[in-house]
Here is the input.
Amino acid sequence: MAVPVLFLPHGGGPLPLLADPAHAGLTRFMADIPARLGKPKAILVVSAHWEESQASVTSAALPELIYDYYGFPPESYQIRYPAPGAPELAARIGELLAARNIAVQADPSRGFDHGLFVPLKLMYPTADIPCIQLSLLSSLDPDAHIRLGEALAPLSDEGVLIIGSGLSFHNLRAFFSEPTEKSVADSLAFDDWLRHTMTAGELDNKRRAERLRQWQQAPAARFCHPREEHLLPLHVCFGVVKARGVSAQVVFNDRLMGMWTSGFLWQ
Here is the structure.
């Protein structure tokens, strides 16, 4: 049986780990969702916070943490998540991508960024599951990210939990400004479009793929994503399950820092 695939909003920097009131709902979601996922053999995280010209995977046995955020309290830089790496899984990913003629490289020096350690510290706090990260492509091509996911699909049958760690809304100026009626409405319009795209029964996965490739045509798309790196982990997740023909379930839908955001699960 295939392991579930999850796209989650990872929140603002380390705030889900700091009892931030604006992240309370997201923090509860992250703590509760493993009950639906079980304990996987390994975890592959596609993080919005790593881009390379070609697909890259962490290959260190014990990756360090990268505190890739700024201006937070001192305890934010003392967070620990000593999960082991997975060099053999890195090699397996290399094989799968190369078989699809996707250029790939192993990176033994890259650590885990907060797109991995923030959600996983809440989801699997014992840090005993081997973890690996896969980069986005700096081209930000939506179709290329769907194809990345398609290449990774066999991993779900091999006990690997694939997590797309991003945000379905990511406009920093809007996040850190007082919400307006228009900004909230725009975030909801895009969120409605995204939830319809991922879950509507009348759409097959061919049509979902086309909508995701043309995501910029969605309502308020460029307001919600001035730059799309936080959306593209969703494209990878969709690519993983595309051949299964299943639709997603909405497992998180709430206002985060004033704006509507969603998380999706494929089981």
Remarks:
- The mean pLDDT is 97.
- The first strand starts at residue 5 and ends at 9.
- The first helix runs from residue 24 to 32.
- The domain at 5-266 is CATH 3.40.830.10 (Protocatechuate 4,5-dioxygenase; Chain B).
